[in-house]
Amino acid sequence: MRKSVLALVMSTVIGAMAFNVVAHDGKRPGEEMRDVLEQLNLSTEQKQQLRESMQAERKAMRGERGEDRQAMREIMQEMANVLDSETFNEAKVTQLVEQRETLAKDKKWQRVERQANLYAVLDADQREALLAIMAVKRNDRQQSMADRPEREPKWQKGLALTDAQQAELDTLQQQQRERMQANRAQMQAFHTAEQALITSGNFSQAGWDALYAQYQPGFVEAGVEMAKQRYATLQILTPQQRAQMQDRQHERREMWQERGHREGRGH
C-alpha cells in the first residue's frame, strides 16, 4: 500500500531533535509531527519536494543502517566487557566512546539534514510558525522533565539490595542526575547552534562539520564519565546481582532490537 504524501513528508522529519519534537498527551512522535505539519498548511508542491528529498536520502542510505547497527552492537558489547573487568580501563573506554561517537555523528548529520530540507521548502510565515510551535514543545518538555517524580530505577527491582548498597547507589544516582543535566544542557546548546545554522541561510555540511567539531570533545567526555558511573555502579553489586541485572538488560535490548526489526519491515 502506498503511503499518503503527508505520511511521507512526516517521515522525513520524525526525530527532529534540533526542533525538539516531543510527543505529549499520549501521542506518539509521528502523530505529533503530523499535527505540526498540518498546522503549517504545506502546499502540494512543498509536499512533493519533501517526498523527493526523502526518497533520495533513502536511496543514499540503503544498506548502511544494518551495518551501522551491527557495528554499534559490537561496540556496546565490547564496552560491557570492559566495564565488567576488575579495573577501569579509561584509555579503552575513551577509544570505544570515540568509535561510538563516529557512528553517532552520521546519524546526527542525517537528522539535521532532514530538518534543513524541511526548513528550505517553507515560506517565511511557515518558518516562523514552525519555530514558534517547536519553542512551545521545547518548554513543555522541559517542564515535564522538571515535574517528573524521582523513582527507583527499574533495574534495581528484585536485586535484594542491602541498606549499605542502596545508600551507595543513591549517592551515585544523584551524581548521575547532575551529570545528565549537564549533558542535556550541552546537547541543547548544540541543537540551538544547529537551529541557528539552519535558519542562517548558509547551511552546509562543511558548516555543520565545523560546528560538530566544537562539541565532539564534550560528547566524548560525557560518554566516558557515564561509563565511569556505570563501572562504579557495578562495583557496588555482588556477582549474583550483577549477573541478574545484566540478564535483564540483555533481554530488554533483544526486545527493542526485535521491535526495531518489526517496525523496519512494516515500512
TrEMBL record:
InterPro entries: Cpx_auxiliary_protein (IPR052211), LTXXQ (IPR012899), Metal_resist (IPR025961). Residues 33-60 form a coiled coil. Residues 245-267 have a biased composition (Basic and acidic residues). It is found in: Periplasm. Residues 240-267 are annotated as: Disordered. Its main location: periplasm. Residues 1-18 form the signal peptide. Keywords: Coiled coil, Periplasm, Signal. Pfam families: LTXXQ, Metal_resist. Belongs to the CpxP/Spy family. Belongs to the ZraP family. This is Signaling pathway modulator ZraP. It comes from Pseudobowmanella zhangzhouensis.
